[in-house]
């Protein structure tokens, strides 16, 4: 077995800082969203995905893939969102076992109300703290890492 390539002090600082930042930032933005709109992160992800399409609909499996969730996990979450009137579920014309998730009028209102508050939270806790150069670097870093992770999923 090859000797591990341990992180040096600079790399270790970056790695631990990223991990702690991610945990605290995600938690703060989730708290803000819950307080401001009553939506969870997952609710917001579903609603924003649905609202990003002109048809306001996604096949359940495609939405699960986008969210990197299992189909069954997403299906259970969608059931809870249906009970709250945020989405509806329809049969799929091309797959008798599939379903299509549709953004309801209540869900459309919820995402329209939540989005400006969510963006304000993201700005307060991340974007407005960074210089334009740091934002550019963060975008570059994200694209590099996501490119590798996307390639490894194929």
Automatic annotation (TrEMBL):
Residue ranges of domain HTH marR-type in the record: 1-147
Alphabetic keyword roster: DNA-binding
SUPFAM superfamilies: Winged helix' DNA-binding domain
GO biological process, one term: response to stress
Domain of life from the UniProt record: Bacteria
Keyword field contains Ligase: no
Molecular function in Gene Ontology: DNA binding; DNA-binding transcription factor activity
Protein name per UniProt: DNA-binding MarR family transcriptional regulator
Organism encoding this protein: Nonomuraea soli
Source taxonomy: Bacteria, Bacillati, Actinomycetota, Actinomycetes, Streptosporangiales
């Amino acid at each position: 077995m090859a000797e591990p390539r341990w992180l040096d002090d600079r790399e270790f600082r970056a790695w631990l800082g990223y991990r702690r930042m991610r945990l605290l930032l995600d938690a703060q933005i989730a708290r803000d969203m819950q307080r401001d709109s009553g939506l969870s992160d997952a609710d917001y992800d579903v609603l924003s995905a649905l609202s990003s399409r002109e048809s306001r609909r996604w096949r359940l499996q495609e939405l699960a893939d986008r969210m990197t969730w299992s189909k069954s996990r997403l299906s259970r979450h969608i059931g809870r969102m249906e009970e709250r009137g945020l989405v509806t579920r329809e049969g799929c014309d091309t797959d008798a076992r599939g379903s299509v998730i549709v953004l309801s009028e209540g869900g459309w209102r919820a995402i329209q109300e939540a989005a400006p508050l969510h963006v304000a939270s993201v700005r307060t806790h991340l974007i407005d703290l960074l210089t334009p150069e740091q934002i550019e670097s963060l975008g570059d870093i994200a694209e590099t890492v996501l490119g590798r992770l996307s390639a490894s999923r194929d």
